[in-house]
Write a structure and sequence with these properties.
Elements lengths: L28 H20 L4 E2 L6 E2 L13 H14 L3 H16 L2
Antiparallel strand pairs: 1-2
């Protein structure tokens, strides 16, 4: 009944072409050397190229050199008011907050 089927009855599995790629051995030293070489190459390339950042929508690339990312928390009501004010002024919320900080520091003499 199974005489026409391949590898039925104890034949070697290596003769069958499988539809997927065999998993590589993580302890194979030649693979580790190749991975390390790729990592070194990518690190040296990234050291030469400045990072490019885009807005969430991906619309425009801007130069963020000399700028620092920060995270802050505030009350929901204040956040809503800041968003509305920034929309009325036609600027990003972060630009509105940055300008407000500059104005406050200037008023207080810093």
């Amino acid at each position: 009944m199974y005489k026409n089927k391949k590898n039925i009855g104890g034949g070697p599995m290596s003769s069958v072409k499988l539809p997927f790629k065999k998993r590589s051995d993580p302890f194979d030293n030649s693979l580790n050397a190749d991975i390390e070489q790729r990592q070194e190459t990518s690190h040296s390339e990234s050291a030469r190229k400045p990072l490019k950042r885009t807005t969430r929508s991906g619309s425009a690339e801007k130069d963020f050199s000399g700028r620092e990312k920060y995270t802050a928390t505030m009350s929901k009501d204040l956040r809503k008011r800041v968003k509305l004010a920034s929309i009325k002024d036609g600027v990003l919320v972060s630009a509105f907050i940055e300008q407000a900080c500059k104005d406050k520091l200037e008023r207080e003499g810093y």
